[in-house]
Design a protein that fits this description.
The protein is of the alpha+beta class. The protein is built from seven helices and 20 strands. The protein has four domains: 142 residues, Nuclear Transport Factor 2, Chain: A, CATH 3.10.450; 47 residues; 70 residues, Roll (SH3 type barrels); 63 residues, SH3 Domains (SH3 type barrels, Roll), CATH 2.30.30.40. β10 and β11 form a beta hairpin.
Length: 338
């Protein structure tokens, strides 16, 4: 496990970081991240579609400020970047924040890493993100955002609809990409693409139901501010069930977060989500979960230190099978304890 820094946030302390962040946002707004030479690591299709969809509505990211802490690797930084979001056709701006991992290459040139994190690096960033000074920064940005919406109801109404607009645009972008891929693979019949091939890749979101009354928070942390509460039986649109045990959902026109253990799928009894009689193991160090008992297996996600999982198959050749988000996943036995 990488020792987590205890240093305080530093504001705009490193000119080379600020320069990279400015170039990153310029390239992001221009849909030029890949050729803009500011990122390393594969930008997955869904994330690329989200950026493209946001750019339909976003004009610029203004007043950038970089708050940094030392990163998990030598010479790296975890950067919490605040900005004022300038939307097209609106004079009013909205404050926002994004977390970036900034690393040096072999020549010391900095870049933004956009690939999958190693489990130790992901755990490091997660722990840094819940430190008190970072939480204070997140809460301050959230308070500024809410103050603006309270003072401009027309802008608040538009912002409430923006997530839905972006979601629809993401679906259209993914559907178009699927159609183009089908054409290139000669999987179309005549001049039309089947609706199944297009919609299959566009169906990102799904319905979940609150298994009991539960809080909704502004970020995936129990220390995060509470946005509100949903009652047992409430249906919600879920964007993603994250590896850290939280689900990203839509709440009151905004993105919110709920612990996944308090959610179930339609038609699923609460008793189906947890088997209290099953043997369980606890994760000692954050570790990749794979679809087979091999490091060549496809990565299903991350199991974080301290989380518990039901055992499907006990240790066999150094691997243990667990129930991971309703699927059978495999982790190295050395990373677990009973």
């Amino acid at each position: 496990m990488i020792p987590v820094t205890t240093e305080s946030l530093k504001e705009n302390a490193f000119p080379e970081v600020n320069d990279l962040v400015n170039r990153y946002f310029a390239a992001r707004t221009a849909d030029d991240l890949v050729s803009g030479n500011v990122i390393r690591g594969e930008l997955n299709t869904r994330e690329a579609a989200k950026i493209e969809a946001r750019n339909i509505y976003v004009e610029a990211y203004q007043n950038l400020n970089c708050y940094t802490k030392p990163g998990p690797y030598t010479g790296s930084y975890v950067a919490f970047v605040t900005y004022d979001l300038k939307l097209k056709d609106w004079e009013q701006t909205a404050p926002g924040l994004i977390t970036l991992l900034i690393c040096p290459d072999d020549n010391g040139v900095l870049y933004v890493y956009t690939g999958d994190f190693e489990e130790n690096a992901a755990e490091y960033i997660r722990q840094v993100s819940v430190q008190s000074d970072v939480a204070d920064l997140l809460n301050r940005i959230d308070a500024q955002y809410n103050e603006i919406l309270d003072g401009d109801k027309e802008f608040a109404t538009y912002m409430s609809s923006l997530n839905e607009l972006i979601k629809n645009s993401v679906g259209e972008i993914l559907a178009e990409a699927a159609a183009e891929a089908s054409v290139s693979d000669n999987t179309v019949s005549g001049n039309s693409v089947s609706s199944d091939s297009a919609s299959g890749n566009a169906a990102e979101y799904f319905t979940v139901i609150a298994a009991e009354t539960v809080n909704v928070r502004v970020s995936d942390s129990e220390n995060a501010d509470r946005m509100g509460q949903v009652a047992e039986g409430t249906e919600l649109v879920c964007h993603e069930q994250k590896a850290n045990g939280w689900s990203e959902i839509e709440y009151d026109g905004k993105v919110g977060y709920i612990k996944s253990e308090y959610l179930k799928k339609p038609g699923e009894d609460a008793s189906q989500t947890t088997n209290t009689n099953a043997d369980k193991v606890t994760i000692k160090e954050s570790v990749n979960v794979r679809d087979k008992a091999s490091t060549d297996g496809e990565k299903l996600g991350l199991a974080y230190a301290g989380e518990s999982y039901e055992v499907v198959t006990a240790d066999k050749n150094g691997w243990t099978a667990i129930n991971f988000k309703g699927k059978t996943g495999y982790i190295k036995t050395e990373y677990i304890q009973k």
